[in-house]
Amino acid sequence: MSETERETTEFDQLPKAARRVARLLVDRGYPWPVRLLPDSARSAAEAAAALGCAVDEIAKSIVFAGVDADGNDTAVVVVVSGATRVNEAQVAEIVGPLRRADADFVKSTTGYSIGGVSPFRLPSTARLLVDRSLNGLAQCFCAAGHPHAVVQTTFDLLLAESADPPVEVT
Fold it and tell me: Which of 69, 113, 144, 156 is deepest in the core (most CB within 10 A)?
């Protein structure tokens, strides 16, 4: 089986949203594949247990509803270490007024379901903030488009997805 055939077969086994993330990462020459976990990784603790890593090595995505410069609702995706809690007031100082995002808002503004929000392949209207709590970790894992899909990454690779500098919101 050729590398292209093997890659296609592996992609076909992924849920649709995870497949989109995997293809993007392969196209970019990303060094780690998207992995499908046997159980849900909807929480940092679940993901860490499934991966056999520490909870702080999970890069969890927290989605808030914000407002863009034109007054339109937009997703604000904050990526932090799984061992920390996001300080909503600190996020609001950076991006302006926020409110909690419900499942419908998350899906419609990020393209992902709660538990599977990936920092990769977000719509251009979403704002991505990467917290410094992930800096210094040799590795971390983030959602890859589906609650069962994860991908290994690094602080620097996450930061490359953001138009903002690293933030401190924990």
Answer: 144
